[in-house]
Design a protein that fits this description.
single chain; 209 residues; alpha+beta; Beta Polymerase, domain 2; five-stranded mixed beta sheet; 6 helices; 54% helix; binds ligand 0O2; NT_sf; GTP pyrophosphokinase family protein; GTP_Pyrophosphokinase; RelA_SpoT
């Protein structure tokens, strides 16, 4: 089922609101990162990546959910139209960013999925949040959902490769490859722990200087 071309302007208008929400959340995260840099000379965020789901991808998700392809269904049933991936240095930074963003007065946390504390069976690690942020438009205010995925550089490295493998095998990853992926995810988790410990060690040297 295709999106009716005559409704493309309406879809564009709807997606613009999601872009504004994404702009707001990016600004919030940049402010936190810059302030922490000023106060502690430390940037918890390595980089961020934002994306708005395309109408085609929204359509596919609605169809997967067994829903009609309408703007109303997209707004009411899809909460990751706006997505931001926040890549941190260490796993402790993940929870630090989560705490700071969730404490903000205009932010409502709708859902938290902690795949860092509880990795998915394939090894995937990341902290997923769905938050609502208010977007003030010319004639109204809308509370818009944004999905935030927060993870370390190492977790992101694993997830990007796993994503490619998943699509290469059309979602049917051979058992042996799956086992190896899980094994590398465990290595990534232990690497994150060692890098954190190393960084703590380096901080001590700094204090002694
Ligand atoms: P895209 O293009 O990245 O957006 P829901 O969105 O709630 O209906 P689900 O699966 O319950 O679906 O949500 P969840 O667990 O929060 O995961 C959503 C997103 O997390 C996915 O988005 C991926 O980006 C990422 N993700 C989840 N599991 C894995 C995984 O095993 N490997 C990798 N590499 N990424 C994962 P989309 O919609 O799949 O795609």
């Amino acid at each position: 089922m295709a999106i009716d071309p005559s409704s493309m302007r309406e879809w564009g208008k709807m997606l613009l609101t999601y872009k504004f929400a994404l702009d707001e959340v990016s600004t919030k995260l940049n402010i936190l990162n810059e302030e922490l840099h000023f106060i502690q000379n430390y940037n918890p965020i390595e980089h961020m990546k934002t994306r708005i789901k395309s109408p085609e991808s929204i359509r596919d998700k609605l169809i997967r959910k067994g829903l009609a392809v309408t703007i109303d269904n997209a707004v009411n049933h899809i909460r990751d139209i706006s997505g931001i991936r926040v890549i941190c240095s260490f796993s402790t930074d993940i929870y630090r960013m989560y705490e700071m963003i969730s404490k903000q007065q205009d932010v409502t946390v709708l859902e938290v999925k902690d795949y860092v504390a509880n990795p998915k069976p394939n090894g995937y690690q990341s902290l997923h949040l769905i938050i609502l942020v208010p977007v003030f438009l010319t004639d109204r205010m809308e509370q818009v959902p944004v999905e935030i995925q927060i993870r370390t550089i190492a977790m992101d490295f694993w997830a990007s490769l796993e994503h490619k493998i998943y699509y290469k095998f059309n979602a049917q990853v051979p058992h042996e490859i799956g086992l190896q992926l899980k094994d590398t995810a465990d290595l990534i988790a232990s690497l994150d722990k060692r890098m954190f410990a190393l960084n703590e060690e380096v901080q001590k040297y700094r204090l002694d200087e």
